[in-house]
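in:
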């Protein structure tokens, strides 16, 4: 968080001089102390995020790949003469944390052809453009990656 604040300071200043770096370090330190004291940030949480960065990047890359694949599948339904058969799918993911559950729900909604209609505890209700899009959704790559993230950092 401290490095992020400091980098933001440098970007907003538009130039790097010794004065700007020294003032930026001081202001970033004060802001970081404030965030730790009053907003629940800590060095321990920052270390956890840094440790989890590779998993986060893999998750984002997988999300982009799944969105691209689903876009082609949805486009195929648009140009077909036969109508897709929409379906409502319910499943349990097995994820423990609320953060991981919401991230899964949002990832499903971001993927074309599927919308998360409801999330109650660990029960997902998903509307799929075609019932084939809902096949195996409870064991999708999003769930597996989020389970890994929960193991590493207790997401």
């Amino acid at each position: 968080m401290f490095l992020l604040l400091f980098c933001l300071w440098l970007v907003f200043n538009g130039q790097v001089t010794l004065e700007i770096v020294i003032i930026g370090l001081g202001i970033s330190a004060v802001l970081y102390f404030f965030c730790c004291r009053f907003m629940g940030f800590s060095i321990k949480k920052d270390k956890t995020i840094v440790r989890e960065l590779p998993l986060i990047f893999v998750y984002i890359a997988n999300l982009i790949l799944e969105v691209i694949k689903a876009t082609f599948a949805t486009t195929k339904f648009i140009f077909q003469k036969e109508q897709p058969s929409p379906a409502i799918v319910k499943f349990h993911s097995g994820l423990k944390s609320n953060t991981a559950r919401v991230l899964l729900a949002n990832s499903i909604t971001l993927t074309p052809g599927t919308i998360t209609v409801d999330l109650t505890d660990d029960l997902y209700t998903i509307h799929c453009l075609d019932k084939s899009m809902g096949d195996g959704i409870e064991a999708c790559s999003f769930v597996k990656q989020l389970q890994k993230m929960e193991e590493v950092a207790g997401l």
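note: The chain has a mean pLDDT of 87.
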